[in-house]
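Why Aldo/keto reductase? Reviewers of the renewal asked for a concrete example.
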Amino acid sequence: MDYRPLGKSGLKVPVLSFGAGTFGGSGPLFGNWGTSDATEARRLVDICLDAGVNLFDTADVYSSGASEEVLGEAIKGRRDAVLVSTKTGLPMGDGPNDAGTSRFRLIRAVEDALRRLQTDYIDLLQLHAFDAGTPVEEVLSTLDTLVRSGKVRYVGVSNFSGWQVMKSQAVADRYGWPRYVAHQVYYSLVGRDYEWELMPLGADQGLGAMVWSPLGWGRLTGKIRRGAPLPEGSRLHETASFGPPVEDEHLYRVVDALDAVADETGRTVPQIALNWLLQRPTVSSVIVGARNEAQLRQNLGAVGWNLTPEQVARLDAASAVTAPYPYFPYHRQEGFARLNPPAV
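Here is what the prediction returned.
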C-alpha cells in the first residue's frame, strides 16, 4: 500500500481507505449500502490492515450512530494501529440544536462520537456540511479547543463550496487556529465537477481530497451495460435518488471506455475506475466500501499498478464534459493553460 500526506499536513494516509457506511446499516439508504455487524466488520478490518489500509471513515449520521458503534467494536484492542475519521454536522434529530456546527453541537457531537467509537481521540474530524447559521469564527475556535484538548488531531470538511473553504482558511490564518487539511468530495469518472474549482483550491490551500463514491454511486461496478436493464440486485433501484445524477449516454460512454481498458489490462472495471482516481492531482485517499469480503478484495486490487498515460487519456476523453461558467469561456484560447496551470 502506498501512503500520501493528507493535504498540507504531516499525517500519512493510505491511498485507499475504508468507508464504514456499510457497518450497522439501517433505513432506506444505509440499509442498502450494507448491514455488517461487529463480527463481519472485524473481519473486513482484518483484511484492510493486512493490505496496509489503516484509515477508516465513518460519520455520526450513518445509521444514526450505528456505523460508529460497529467500527468501535471492530477496532477494539488495536486503536493504535488505525486512523479513525468521522464526520458531523448533518441532522441527528429533530431538536433545534441537533444539526449544524455550533459550539454546542460540535462539542456534544465529538463526545458522542468518542463514546460510540470507544476511543479518547479522533484522528480526523470533518464537518459534513457548511453551516450558514453559525459564524465561521465560532466553528473554528471550537475546533481549536477540541484539537488543543487532544480529542481531535486534524480537521477537515466535506461537500463545501470553494468560497466556504476559502473563507474558513482565511479566518483560521487570522487567529492562528487549525487549518482544514482534508476535503471529502464526490469525484469519479462520471462526476468530475471537483476538477473545476475545488481541485485547484485544494492544491493552493493544502487540502487533500478524500474521495467518496469513487464508483459513481455504484454505477461503475461493471454490471451496468448499454442496452441492458439495471441488474436485479443493484442498490441503485433503491438509492439512485439519494446520489449524484448521471445522464445515461454519458455513463455508457464511460463504461464502454472502461470495458476496453479492462480487456487490455485484465483488470476489473472498478479497479480501473479507482486506479484512474489515484493518478489525479490533490487526491490523498480514495474511500472504498464493501458489503462483503469479495467486494473488498476486488477494490484492494486497484493498487500496485498504474494505467498507462495513453489509457488515462482515453478515459479522460470519454468522461469529459464542458466546464460550467465561469470555467469554460477561455479554455480553448491560446495562453489559458499558462495563466491557469493544472492543479498538482
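The two ends are 21 Å apart (CA to CA). This is the kind of structural detail the renewal will allow us to pursue systematically.
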